[in-house]
Automatic annotation (TrEMBL):
GO biological process: cellular response to gibberellin stimulus; chaperone-mediated protein complex assembly; cortical microtubule organization; mRNA processing; protein folding; protein localization involved in auxin polar transport; response to cold
Membrane-spanning intervals of the chain: none
Name of the protein in its database record: Prefoldin subunit 6
Annotated organism of origin: Arabis alpina (Alpine rock-cress)
Alphabetical list of InterPro entries matching this protein: PFD_beta-like, Prefoldin
CDD domains according to UniProt: Prefoldin_6
Upper lineage: Eukaryota, Viridiplantae, Streptophyta, Embryophyta, Tracheophyta
Coiled coil regions, renumbered to chain: 83-117
UniProt similarity note: Belongs to the prefoldin subunit beta family.
A Pfam family assignment: Prefoldin_2
Molecular function GO labels: Hsp90 protein binding; protein-folding chaperone binding; unfolded protein binding
Alphabetical keyword list: Chaperone, Coiled coil
One Gene Ontology CC term in the entry: cytoplasm
Amino acid sequence: MSSSMRDMQKDLENKANDLGKIQKDIAKNHQLRKKYTIQLGENELVLKELDLLEEDANVFKMIGPVLVKQDLAEAKANVGKRIEYISAELKRLDAILQDMEEKQINKRDAILKLQQRVQSIQAGKAKA
């Protein structure tokens, strides 16, 4: 096997490893995104429930094993801020995911081109 062929095989392995890493990162991103999506839904539900309450209603927040009385307006504000934060994180994760998917496509294309080159060289040697 010629040194250029060995170099191409090594390059192919490196690109395949890089693709594997990108795919793992995409899977992690999907898991994290799923977690945030669930949290967003829960917090939106809490906000809807808080909106149903009258201004003088008692609201309690669980801190560890203890329920602590909390002002309704403060509770709504806290949940609203949490929703903003989670929404921002989801947007950030979407942007990262889009970037990783583009990298994945580019890496697959590079691998495919390199495989085709290797095959054409091998086919040329087989004919010779």
